[in-house]
Design brief:
The two termini are 22 Å apart. The model has no long low-confidence stretch (mean pLDDT 93). The protein has one helix at residues 31-42, and strands spanning 6-10, 13-17, 24-26, 47-50, 72-75. The chain is α+β, with helices and mostly antiparallel strands. A 3-stranded antiparallel sheet has the order 3-5-4, covered by helices on one side. Strands 1-2 form a two-stranded antiparallel sheet. The protein binds zinc ion.
């Protein structure tokens, strides 16, 4: 894993991320279970955004659980 500063573009703004915490996606149905899983795995509540507001073509915006197009993005902002 790259431990350098990681940023992501959200609605035209560069947002700094905790490098050890990934960006994950979930559909509406699985948003709650994915948030719970994130908390369990990383011992931190994720910040959530609309998946469509994440401006990164390289990310696979599909629900981690069922593979459906994601509605929600889960990530951890630095300094939050
Ligand atoms: Zn799902």
């Amino acid at each position: 894993m790259d431990k350098k500063e990681k940023t992501i573009r959200i609605e035209g703004k560069d947002v700094a991320l905790h490098p050890e915490h990934p960006v994950r996606f979930a559909c509406m149905e699985h948003a709650d279970t994915q948030i719970d899983e994130y908390v369990d795995e990383f011992e931190a509540a994720p910040d959530t955004y609309r998946a469509a507001s994440i401006e990164d073509d390289k990310l696979d915006k599909r629900c981690r659980e069922c593979g459906a197009p994601a509605e929600i993005a889960l990530l951890r902002e630095k300094g939050m």
